[in-house]
Design a protein that fits this description.
Helices cover 21% and strands 20% of the residues. It is built from four helices and nine strands, in the order H-H-H-E-E-E-H-E-E-E-E-E-E. The structure holds FE2/S2 (inorganic) cluster.
Length: 194
């Protein structure tokens, strides 16, 4: 991919993400402030209050980020292909069964989720805490080419995670990305409550 194409793809993703955010909160709102309004007050947040987010506006294959207890929470709407590809990377993972990682019992499955199509995961690298980037492109040349089926890449020291937040073998990060408690009722995601 040329640099110009790369910029365009990046810009398109930003636009799609913005559209998803606006779609989630209603027409006429300014995306960022309105999304913030879903968050609890600073005092409530410090006390660990749950965060409520309408996820109906997330496009297939796209990700939004919400904040919970000061951490970014990645919410990805996985396509059927993304879900099917999870089993293809299992041999390359350090902890495919999520035996060592942190997640609620109801997410201790291959998709690490309540609904296979919705991933809710902490965007905090388990190495030293950087924020991984969302890299859903299958076959990305800089991430292993044909061996890459989409996931997250930590730019700090190169750790790789699949699209359920499971860490690859041979990278600095020791564990899968953590999954917070959450529930989904219709199109409403609540992070911090089961
Ligand atoms: S903090 Fe992510 S690889 Fe080091």
């Amino acid at each position: 991919m040329s640099h110009a194409e790369g910029v365009n793809v990046k810009r398109r993703r930003v636009l799609i993400a913005s559209t998803a955010a606006v779609g989630a909160v209603g027409v006429g709102a300014i995306a960022t402030p309105f999304v913030r309004s879903w968050y609890p007050s600073a005092k409530a947040e410090a006390a660990g209050a749950a965060v409520v987010q309408d996820i109906s506006g997330i496009e297939n294959g796209q990700m939004i980020t919400v904040k919970y207890r000061g951490k970014p929470i990645f919410v990805v709407k996985r396509t059927d292909e993304m879900v099917a590809n999870l089993s293809k990377v299992t041999p390359k993972l350090s902890d495919p069964e999520s035996a060592k990682s942190v997640q609620p019992e109801y997410c201790k499955n291959e998709t690490r989720s309540i609904k296979p199509e919705i991933l809710v995961v902490e965007g905090v690298c388990t190495h030293l805490g950087c924020a991984p980037t969302f890299r859903p492109e299958v076959g990305a040349a800089d991430l292993g080419g044909a061996d890459w089926f989409g996931g997250f890449f930590c730019p700090c020291h190169g750790s790789l995670y699949d699209l359920s937040g499971r860490v690859y073998s041979g990278v600095p990060a020791p564990n899968n990305l953590s999954i917070p408690e959450y529930k989904i009722e219709d199109t409403i995601l609540t992070v911090g409550e089961s």
